[in-house]
Hints:
The protein is α+β, with helices and mostly antiparallel strands. The chain is built from 8 helices and 33 strands.
Amino acid sequence: MTRFFPTFLLIFSFALPVFAQNQSGPKIEAAMISRRINVGETGQLLVTISNGRATDMPSRIDAQGLDVTFAGNQTSTNITNGSMSYENVYFYQVKPTAGEGSYTIPAITVSVEGQQLKSTPIEITVAKPKTDGGLAAAATKPYFGRFSLDAEEIYANQIVPLEIKAYVRGRNAIHDVSSASLDHESFVIQNFRDVKIDGVELNGSLYSIAKLGSHLFALKPGEHTLGPAEIGVKVLDSRRGGGFGFPSIFQSTRVVKVATNALTLTVKPLPEGAPASFTGGVGDFALTVNPSTTAVSVGDPISMEFIVAGVGNLGTLGAPVFSAAAKPDQWKTYEANKSLEPDQVSDGVAPGRATFSQVIIPLQETTEIPTFELTFFDPAKGEYVTRKTDPIPISVAADGGTAPATTMAFPAAATPGAQAAFPGPAAAVPTASFADVLHIQTGLTKWRPITAAVPGAKGGPLFFAFHVICSLGFFTLLAYGVLRYLRQKKLDAGEAIPTLNFQQSLRRIPKPGSKKHDFYRAVARSLSIWKSEHNEAPENLMEAVNSLSRRCDSFLYAGEVDSTATVDREESSEFLTVLKKLPAK
């Protein structure tokens, strides 16, 4: 009786809010986080169902000029003055598909607790972003993205930096960035690598910001729309509270997809009349050259190393070329090799560096290497610019390969009918010898006793003693292994697996200072035993226990926690306090 009374009180304390909850019945409400959506951006529709759960929520809502798709849901429980209420919130992404204008999200009808509930239509406006990038309007959302470029008008092949940002409401709300993408068939966009985490206050709310920088250049002229970009952000999941008065044991994360705005960019073609030495570079560069040698003979190769450094698109830049003053009959050139390391690429702001190596060969005697030219288009000046190297003094000697060729002759005896080119006696022709070929037996084999063929092979006392000892050792080890196998099998068959009840499992939970992995495994086992003992527990109590079990599973199987970490006294006390409140059988 003494155990039954506190157990009854605990079950009654959990069941009381269920009986005291608002009996007004289920309700449905649809609302937009913001009724203004910028062109190229994504809005969010929230459908909230109170005091009930829907069984037929649509995966897509048909709306003219809008793409409204289901994006997830969450459940929350509120206890106010002893009255419990439930809310199920369903999230939908709203993407404009028909440009600027006013659009309507129609009402939806769903079945909740046997009743047909219908929401109200929602009017929204799709417009161009404001001059401030729409931050003031976007700051009403829990998370949103922004895409920015340093220019609104560029030339083809001109490289410019860009930045995409993900805003998430809350201090230190961003845990990590899982992915980022921005694609367009007319642009080459460098992958997003560096991530910077920052914060800002908007409309009185603090937002965490993930900044990702990159750069791009256009492949063809015209007016293009870039974006929206998409960022996958790991955020702290505030939805997973303890629930039903249970404390939250640890923080968890979830990935949200944040879409940015879109931008329109005008790409101008390069002017006509480019010099013959133009190789495709757009930017502002300096040119230096270094020959491998300055003293050669006619026909000897010279390796030329060109270093091009500056701000601009080094990826489309070609190698310097001989100036028009170079005579084609004096030099032979080979195709240049280009080296551009990833950490030496210019992003349109910081300078970069590319290296070219080219082999040239003098065909005549000369005193200098002619100038090389590098022509590129400078977008700041709007014109083509040519950089030239200075002539390099060089010493080219006459071809040392003009001496009379050496005549090779062979002995007359080796080539019958030919006259020897060297005086003296002819070399003797070697005679073939086959003494190294072994005899191949063709007759029958004559067998002999082994004692006659191998001296000392006749068995004796030592010979047999050795084999007996080896045999005894082998069979002894074999018998020992068989006995161990049979003993273990017998133990396994006779071992009884102890059956624990909930109270016994609580006493086996490790104390503070033990490994977290062992602690959470023991807690999960206790919760599993309790559920098996209380199959008919109240629904709200069972939901709370399941919530704790999911937290333990998340810790045990997420793979993100150090296996050597230990549980502290405060964390252990939080769990044991909750477990001891559960009624025992």
